[in-house]
Amino acid sequence: MKEQFNDKDVTIADMNVPGMPWYRKRSKVSSKERVSLNRRERWAAMIGVFEAIFPIIMIYAAGILLIFLFIYFIWL
């Protein structure tokens, strides 16, 4: 029976090239080291993200509403 090729943890060509927009320097901190947040900090972060995104969502919603109102009252 033919062996199956296992490519786990094998890098054929490293695409992390300096000068490219996606280039990232190798970090000495391993990806397993995560920041641990308690429940209050996690909720504060989620609320902060919502507060940052909410005005943008409302601007888009108002724009879509104006387009629909224009189509309904003026165009038709």
Entry keywords:
76 residues, mainly alpha, 49% helix, extended, transmembrane, transmembrane helix
Notes on the protein architecture:
The structure is a single chain. By secondary structure, this protein is mostly helical. The chain has a domain at 38-76. Helix content is 49%, strand content 0%. The protein has one helix and no strands. The model has no long low-confidence stretch (mean pLDDT 83).
Low-pLDDT sequence parts: none
Measured between the Cα atoms of the first and last residue, the distance is 70 Å
The helix/strand class is: mainly alpha
Given the structure, what is the number of helices?
A: 1
Largest sheet: none
Total DSSP E strands:
0
Radius of gyration: 24 Å
Helix fraction, binned, reads 40-55%
Give the overall form. extended
Q: Tell me, rounded to a whole number, the average pLDDT.
A: 83
Order of helices and strands: H
